[in-house]
Amino acid sequence: IISLILTIPLAVSAGDSSKTYFGAGMMNITDKGLDGLKGTGVTIDDSDTVANFSLGYKVSPNLALEGSIFSSGEVSASFSGGESGTLHGKQYAVSGTISIKAKTDNTYMIGLKYSGGSGPLSINIKAGQLFWDIDYTADINGTITYDGTAYSVSTSLDIESKDGSDPYFGFGLSYALSNNSSLDFDYISSEIHDDSMSGYSLSWVRSF
After folding, report:
1. Which of 11, 87, 142, 173 has its CB surrounded by the most CB atoms within 10 Å?
2. How far apart are CA 112 and CA 99, in angstroms?
3. Is residue 71 over pLDDT 80?
4. How far, in Å, are 19, 31, 93, 157, 162 from residue 187 at the CA level?
5. pTM of the predicted model, to two decimals?
């Protein structure tokens, strides 16, 4: 289904003793998990907008330990007629109308973030581990054969569920609104179920 996405603290001055910060915002994620289904007559929607929240603790003026969560997201592929191909190493064939969806549960990240700058503008880089859980479903009106099993129904089917973790890397900009709040724009890149995901986020961050 991902997004993109961590928030960053303000550049810390000598007189700023705030070590903990909280961020909240929105993120647009792009998940390439269903792009392998691209073909004639196939419509791919590989992006979604989710809410994201972060909580961080500054272990030094420029280095923070940060945990984040972003809400459930969904990407889909829909087509009609007859199509066949491979999805995650398994053969599929369809006739009729079908919509395949990949939906992530809440996704968690934990990692380190290094930030610095002068004046109201600061930059950051970040890296850590992303923990994901994804479900694949199919809304079918016709027949689908997946991994040798044929379904001829008009219903919603659970195809596959997977969970795991992958490294992430990101960077961003922060603009100070006051001594203890900022507006942050961030980008992140990772993988979910061996497929690339990325996201852009805009967040409000408060130090306390």
Report:
1. 11
2. 38
3. yes
4. 23, 14, 36, 34, 25
5. 0.77
Q: Tokens 């001594």 map to which residue? A: 179
Amino acid at 137: T
Res 54: pLDDT = 97
3-state secondary structure of 36: helix
Calpha distance 101→107 (Å, rounded): 17
pLDDT digits (tens, 9 = 90+) for 172-182: 999 999 989 99
Q: Which residue has the higher pLDDT, 153 or 2?
A: 153
Partners of 101 in the beta sheet? 76, 137
What rounded mean pLDDT belongs to the chain?
86
Cα distance between residue 84 and residue 143, in whole Å: 12
pLDDT reported for residue 137: 93
Distance CA 154, CA 4 (A): 35
Sign of CA dihedral 33, 35, 37, 43: positive
- How is residue 42 written in tokens? 């196939």
Residues above pLDDT 70, as percent of the chain: 90
Q: Taking the CA of residue 42 as centre, how many other CA atoms within 13 Å lie in the half-sphere pointing to its CB?
A: 18
Read off φ and ψ for residue 89, nearest 5 degrees: 80, 5
Specify the residue for token string 């500054």. Answer: 58
